[in-house]
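Record 1 of the preview.
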Amino acid sequence: MSYNKTMMYFVYILKCADGTYYTGITTDPERRLREHNAGTAAKYTHPPSRRPVEMVYQEQAGDRAEASRREYAIKQLTRKEKEDLIG
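->
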C-alpha cells in the first residue's frame, strides 16, 4: 500500500462476546470489524469465545501517530471509564 498523507485513521473499541473490550486503530472500521469477526484481525479476538464482536465506539484521528496515542490512552482507562466513554 502506498503512503497517503490524507488517509483517515480511526480509534475504535469492540465489545467481545465474553464481555471484554478491545481497542485498536484502523483506516477502515467496517473492514476491520469484519476481520475481527472472522478471527483474522488480532490475536485477542481470534478465540471463538471472544466472537462475535460488536463495534461500540469509534472516533476519528488526525493521523496514525495521533490514533496510536489515543489508542494507548484508552487502553490505560479502567473498565468503568471505558464504559463512560462509550456512553
